[in-house]
Structure formats: structure tokens, C-alpha cells
Amino acid sequence: MKKNKAKPHILLVEDEETLAIGLEFNLQAEGFEVDLAADGRQALELYVPGKYDLIVLDLMLPYVDGFEVARRVRTQDARQPILMLTARTQAADKISGLQAGADDYLTKPFHLQELLLRVQGMLKRKSWYETSTEDESQVRFGRNEVNFDNLQCRSAKGAFQLTAQEAMLLRYLIDHKNKVVSREELLENVWNIHSDVETRTVDNFIVRLRKYFEDDPSNPQFIKSVRSKGYLFELKE
Ligand code: CA
User: Fold this and answer.
1) Distance in Å, CA 65 to ligand 1 centroid
2) Could you tell me the domains of the chain?
3) Residue 221, SS3 per DSSP
4) N or C, which end of the chain is more exposed by having fewer CB within 10 Å?
5) From ligand 1's centre to the CA of 10, what distance in Å?
6) 75: CA distance to ligand 1 center in Å?
7) Rounded to an integer, what distance in angstroms lies between the CA atom of residue 1 and that of residue 23?
8) For residue range 154-174, what is the model confidence (pLDDT) as tens digits?
9) Residue spans of alpha helices (H) in 138-187
């Protein structure tokens, strides 16, 4: 369902008071409506599925940490965009953070401008995804069926659920079916990141999609590699 809200609504979860107040002020100055939660418990009390366009979630929080907040939010809304804030010393946690359902992460300390760019990028992707899936939320290819609203899928291997990021990548490939898309294009449009992240990220996600949807992932019928160019979703009509 398409929402026409005047201001994007952000839930900001941050326990460092000075940082929280600074971020709240700056996000409001950028035209966002902000609810502030000082710990994980408060975040879960404030959270209502569909209420927030984005959750900016600190990882280390009192009572309930960011992983657990993300996990519980995800069980209620698989598509809720979450930007995780991590400390530089928690590099290993980044991966688990993304697996726990964060769509993107930012390492502290960060520049305010960097955060604002990430936030805007995530909101842009959210609105692209909503527009794209509005007319066609159910897609079938081969023996696969994907519901882009609740991310529930069926394949020859059974029923399962995609993560928001997997769904976005698949959607982008399907929207550009029978055309070659480069890793850089995918990074920019699906992840909203440029040079700072390796294109291997894209390859890892492609491997996951093939495992889900291809009868033989080593010989893909839909999600094909185009040597030195990128990927192509092939669908003969
Ligand atoms: Ca913290």
C-alpha cells in the first residue's frame, strides 16, 4: 500500500544522550519526524508495524540490544528498513548485524552528512520498492513464486522467507529482466553504496538467490552471470 505522508517518520534508538539529541535535532532539521528511544525496551514499546519509514538502531543498548530489537521487528514486518549503528571495534558484528535483519550499517564515529545520505538513500530505495511492487506484488518464474509484500516464497525446495535486502535485489533484477546489470549498478541502486564496499557483496547475495530459486544453482536458468559485465535475469515470455 502506498502511503502519502508529509514527513518520513524515523524511530531513532540511541542510548548515548548527547549523540541522540544531536541526531534528533539534525534529522528534524532535514524534515523528518523523529521518535527517540533511549534503550531497546523503549524502542520495542514505541514500534508499531508500518509506523516508521526507517529505524536508526544503535547496536549496544541497555536492556535489549540492537540485534534483538531488529530480530523482533523483523518477525512483525520483514520489510521494515533498519540502519544499524555499530562501533568501530565491532567489525565482526557487522556481518551478524546484517544477518539479524539490518539493511545497512554505519560505523561510529561517523559524519552527520554520511548518516543523512544513508537515511535518504534508504528512504529512496523503500519508495522505489513500494512503487515497483504496487502493481505486481506476486511474481512467478519457473516453479518459483515470490510475494514481494510479505517476502514469502515458494520454490521446488519448499516455502521460505526472503530478507528485505534479498527481495530488493531480486526485484531490481526482475524489473530489469533480460538486460545486463553491472555489480556497480546493483550496489548503487539496491545497496545505495558506492566505492566503499566490495562488489563481492553483490556476488554473495546472488549465490543466495540462486540457492533459493534455481533447481541447479551451478547452472542457473534465471539468474545468469554475464562474464566481466554483471548479471542478467532471464525470463522468456
Ligand atoms: Ca550504545
Assistant:
1) 9
2) 9-131 (3.40.50.2300), 135-233 (1.10.10.10)
3) coil
4) C
5) 18
6) 23
7) 29
8) 999 899 989 888 999 999 999
9) 164-175, 183-186
